[in-house]
């Protein structure tokens, strides 16, 4: 016989099982999807057909400079709240999913302007990093790294191999950092 307590427990278990199931017909995003895949390269930077920064990982695991830089910059500025490798923490969400799910411009806006969600069910505050050159000069790098992590193209930890930093990337970094 199901007591009210067992009935509630069984109901919660069933609800959690349903939440864990993927939506029918929904597939995991693929790094080969044109929305994510590199369409062209410009001076060591890779872009989708829609001119959105993206990653380029060779078959031997060599990552483009921007993805490598994103790993470094993420761990210098973001992992304190969002956890190592974009995995999230008890304090802040996993950004590797955000970089895949969010539009590039929305991602950029949240980092630059910050965001606050305070209501009965949540209390989250993302501070603005719009005046922090250590974030803003490398925001595309961070985005590209997190997108590669979210799509499973780059594993956890420091990438073992990287492309060389191009002169164009160095010049843009120097101009931004002053």
UniProtKB/TrEMBL annotation:
InterPro entries tied to this protein: C-typ_cyt_methanol_metab-rel, Cyt_c-like_dom_sf
Gene3D superfamilies: Cytochrome c-like domain (1.10.760.10)
UniProt key word Signal: yes
GO molecular function, one term: heme binding
UniProt keyword list: Signal
Signal peptide: 1-25
Entry protein name: Cytochrome c-553I
Source species of the chain: Roseovarius mucosus
């Amino acid at each position: 016989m199901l007591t009210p307590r067992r009935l509630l427990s069984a109901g919660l278990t069933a609800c959690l099982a349903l939440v864990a199931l993927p939506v029918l017909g929904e597939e995991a995003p693929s790094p080969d999807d044109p929305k994510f895949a590199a369409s062209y390269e410009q001076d060591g930077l890779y872009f989708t057909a829609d001119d959105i920064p993206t990653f380029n990982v060779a078959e031997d695991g060599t990552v483009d400079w921007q993805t490598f830089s994103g790993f470094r910059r993420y761990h210098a500025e973001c992992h304190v709240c969002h956890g190592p490798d974009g995995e999230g923490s008890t304090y802040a969400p996993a950004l590797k999913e955000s970089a895949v799910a969010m539009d590039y411009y929305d991602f950029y806006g949240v980092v630059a302007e910050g965001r606050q969600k305070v209501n009965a069910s949540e209390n989250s505050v993302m501070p603005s990093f719009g005046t922090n050159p250590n974030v803003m000069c490398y925001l595309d790098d961070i985005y590209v790294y997190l997108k590669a992590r979210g799509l499973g193209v780059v594993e956890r930890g420091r990438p073992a191999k990287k492309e060389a930093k191009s002169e164009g990337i160095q010049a843009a970094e120097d101009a931004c950092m002053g």
